[in-house]
Specification:
The chain has one helix and ten strands; from the N terminus they run βββαβββββββ. It has 114 residues and is mostly beta strands.
Length: 114
């Protein structure tokens, strides 16, 4: 079963989106989870991490704009993205840290454009 991300779309610069990703209960409750993204022609990169205990970390290029959270009752990890920039345009994926290679899903496309 793949990890299914959803919530992407077209948004203007400065806008917001909230992404969601549902995982199986056992997998979700025992793994640090993360969001990744891959822009056209670029390598996949880490966007946000949240530990089993709820601690989060972000790279500098999204810090202060993106917020990762998780809901154990729904087995869901979220990514709230604010003040979006054109350079945030990419396909966004969720997975664990370290990644579960077999669980990469198709991702959800986020396009930031006026």
């Amino acid at each position: 079963v793949q990890l299914q991300a959803s919530g992407g779309g077209l948004v203007q610069p400065g806008g917001s989106l909230r992404l969601s990703c549902v995982a199986s209960g056992t997998f979700f409750s025992t793994r640090n989870m993360a969001w990744y993204r891959q822009a056209p022609g670029k390598q996949r990169e880490l966007v946000a991490v949240i530990t089993v205990g709820g601690q989060s970390n972000y790279p500098d290029y999204v810090k202060g704009r993106f917020t990762i959270s998780r809901d154990y009752a729904k087995n869901t990890v979220y990514l709230q993205m604010n003040n979006l920039k054109p350079e945030d345009t990419a396909v966004y994926y969720c997975n664990s840290v370290p990644v579960a290679i077999s669980l990469w899903g198709p991702g959800t496309l986020v396009t930031v454009s006026s």
